[in-house]
Design goal:
- It is built from five helices and two strands; from the N terminus they run αααααββ.
- By secondary structure, it is mostly helical.
- The protein folds into two domains: 3-56, no CATH class; 61-125, no CATH class.
- A hairpin with a 4-residue loop joins strand 1 and strand 2.
């Protein structure tokens, strides 16, 4: 077995603790066969056939969090605030209460947060 597949397995297992060993091995082999060494004797499908079912798997919480942070950062609020909001959304916390606790510049009636380069309506995130 190629050493790179072992490395990929360890990395995938670490970043996706919800994966079973079978899922982590399958993903490691798929990544290896699609991106690392598509011509390997171990790979029996064309590269385009690997990782087709990835969309069926639920992304890890960290992937969800990073996606939210990236999207929220584009609204003009700071990256730190974006991270706090993303964490609150994933933990199903009350954003209005978080805004008060963090002393963010939020209009109490409209729940619009004013950031350094834009505004974000916290009501739209519920």
């Amino acid at each position: 077995m190629p050493a790179k597949v072992d490395e990929l397995f360890e990395e995938i297992s670490k970043k996706n603790p919800e994966y079973s060993d079978a899922q982590a091995w399958a993903t490691a082999w798929s990544v290896y066969c699609k991106y690392v060494n598509p011509g390997s004797d171990h790979c029996h499908l064309p590269p385009s056939e690997y990782l087709k079912r990835c969309a069926m798997y639920k992304p890890s919480k960290e992937v969800e969090r990073l996606t939210l942070v990236a999207a929220l950062s584009k609204t003009g609020v700071s990256r730190t605030v974006s991270k706090d909001i993303a964490d609150a959304i994933l933990r199903k916390r009350d954003l209005a209460a978080l805004a008060v606790q963090k002393k963010w510049p939020v209009d109490p009636d409209s729940l619009v947060l004013t950031g350094p380069q834009g505004r974000l309506n916290l009501n739209m995130l519920k």
